[in-house]
Amino acid sequence: MEFLIYFAIILILPLWAQSKVKSTYKKYSKVATSSHMTGAEVARKILDDNGLYNVSVEEVKGSLTDHYDPRKKVVRLSTHNYHEASQAGAAVAAHEVGHAIQDEQEYAFLKFRSALVPVAGFGSNVSIFLILGGLLLGMSQLFLFGIIFFAAAVLFQLVTLPVEFDASNRAMTQLVSTGIIRNDEERSTKKVLNAAAMTYVASALVALAELLRFVFMFIGMNED
Questions:
Q1: Transmembrane residues, as ranges (predicted)?
Q2: 142 contacts: CB under 8 Å, gap ≥ 6
Q3: How far is CA 70 from the centre of its chain?
Q4: Which of 13, 98, 149, 177 has the fewest CB neighbours in a 10 Å radius?
Q5: How far apart are CA 220 and CA 166, in angstroms?
Q6: Where are the domains of the chain?
C-alpha cells in the first residue's frame, strides 16, 4: 500500500498537474479578456501602475516559458502570451509582474528563495552521487551527507510555494483593480493561476516524498 502511495506521488501527481495546466491554459488562451489587452500590454500597465518603470517586458521563445528575471529586472513572456489578448495570457503576465512587485517590496520568502538558489543547485547536483555512493559502499555517513544536501533542494521547493501563491494573489488584485478583467472573468482567471500553482505543489510533494524515502533508508542502514 505504501508503495502505491509513493508511486502515485512520484509519477501520477506530476503528470496530472502538467496535464491540468496545459489543458486549462489551452482553453483560456482562446478566450479574450474584455479589455482586449495583450500579455505585453497587461504587464506594462501593471508595472507602470506600481511605479516599476525600470522593469522591462520582453518576448521569449517557447510555450509557457514565462518568467521574471530579478537580476536584469525583466518580465519575459512567451510568444503567444506576449502578442495575443487572452485570459490565460493576462493571468500569466500579471503573475510574472507579481514577482517583480515582490522583488521591489523585498518580499521575505522571495529573498529567502533567492539566497537558497546556489545551495539548492549544488545540493540537487551532488546529493544523488553521495546517496548512491553511500549505498554502494555501505557508508551511512556519506549517505547522510547526501540527505542533507538533498534536503536543501527540497527546502527550495517548499519555499517556492508561498512565493508563487503570493504572486498569484497579487496578480488577481492587480487585474481587477486596473480593470483589465471584469468581475465575471475572475473565476476563469483564477483557474489558470490555480492550475499553474498545482505544478509547484506537485514538485514539492515529489521532492518531499523522495526525502522521506531517503531518511527511512538511512534509518534502515543504521538498524542493520
A1: 115-137, 142-163, 197-219
A2: 130, 133, 134
A3: 15
A4: 177
A5: 39
A6: 2-32+86-98+105-223
- Cβ(107)–Cβ(166) below 8 Å: yes
Max CA distance (Å), the chain = 66
Instruction: State how beta strands 74-78 and 56-60 pair.
Output: parallel
**What distance in Å separates the CA atoms of residue 113 and residue 25, rounded to the nearest whole number?**
26
Q: Give pLDDT tens digits for 43-83.
A: 999 999 999 999 999 999 998 999 999 999 999 999 999 99
- pLDDT above 80 (res 11): no
- Residue 64 CA to residue 94 CA, distance in Å, equals 14
* Residue 46 to residue 175: CA distance in whole angstroms: 8
Cell reading at 181: 478583467
Q: pTM for this one? A: 0.89
Judged against a pLDDT cut of 80, whether residue 223 lies above it is answered with no
First to last CA, the chain: 24
Predicted confidence (pLDDT) per residue in 23-44, tens digit: 999 999 999 999 999 999 999 9
